[in-house]
Amino acid sequence: MSFKIVNYNDNLFNEWDNFIKISINGTIYQTRKFLSYHDKNKFLDSSILIYKNEILSCVLPSCKLGENFFSHKGATYGGPVFSKEVYNIKNMDEILNLIFSYYDNKIEFRIPNSIYHEYSDNILLYLLGSKLKMCPELAWYISVEDDVINNIKNIRNKKSVIKMINNENYTCQKFTEKEDYISYYEILLKNLKEKYNTNPTHTLTEFLLLKEILLNNQSLYLVKKENIIYGGVFVIKVTKNCWYTFYISKNIDINNNMSIIYIMNKIKEDAKKENVKYIDYGITTENSGKILNKGLSEFKELSLCGKSTNRYLFLK
After folding, report:
1. CATH number for the domain including 299?
2. Which of 131, 150, 182 is the last residue of a domain?
3. How far are the Cα atoms of 36, 45, 138, 254 from residue 41, in angstroms, in the given order?
4. What range does the domain containing 293 cover?
5. Which is nearest to 258 in space by CA: 118, 123, 152, 141?
6. What b/e string do you get for 106-137 counting C-beta neighbours within 10 Å, with b at 16 or more?
7. Entry pTM
8. What confidence tens digit (pLDDT) does each residue in 60-99 have?
9. CA distance 98 to 277
10. Are both 95 and 209 inside the same structural domain?
11. Which of 7, 9, 92, 129 is the most buried (most CB within 10 A)?
12. 100 and 123 share one domain
């Protein structure tokens, strides 16, 4: 067989991340730099590199949970990352068969939305779907060419957010100080705890570590008035095509959804300047896509002018 598997170790850190940069479908979530923000004891790493004639052709970030494997529990997206040279049906089929054999058919995946890549992922989706159960998760996005403000369906909301934008007392921009991240995390924590009785995915320590690890590939957008935070959105620049909006939260003590619309419009404008194509609003489903959060879906569709798309889980 022309392909061979090598287990990941820290000596391969740079080779791995350099490969992601030139791959056909890699994202920042699949880099070792991103995955390194986790405590080493949090996940049992089982990642592999696949070479063809001594040339790196594919990497797969993965971790072991019990007797099963997942790509990857420590990231929003995972799945195999390919070089352009092997991105065809023959090689991908051979590589995936090798992967399934290596993990004894006990591996599951979450694959990035197609909006992240310039090349079609239909071959990958088909091959994974032929071996595993494909579970769609409903997600929302906009194009940077979309007019977020004028496309708002609710006229009252449209007038309110325009009024906010034109009010010089409100500031909507990227904030970089550690204190702003801490203040926003406290708002996010209170919002999630009081509305959903849950906590953020990351601890405050992890959130601040993400800021340091991602550097220019992350931003914290806030709306402030008289130094009071009205709402915020954490943004990760996942690929050159697409940014991901994470931790979207308003200050529930003020209860103003318009701040989020204001921020999303600002993010879209900044993304357009950097030739990004899409803004990913994230999913509005839970439990592997089985449960739909209707209120959140309606907000992202009607108030944020989102378009529907699917990201896919592939489960045993």
Report:
1. 3.40.630.30
2. 131
3. 11, 9, 32, 39
4. 141-311
5. 152
6. ebbbbbbbbbbbeeebebbbebbeeebebbeb
7. 0.92
8. 999 998 999 999 888 999 999 999 999 999 999 999 999 9
9. 34
10. no
11. 92
12. yes
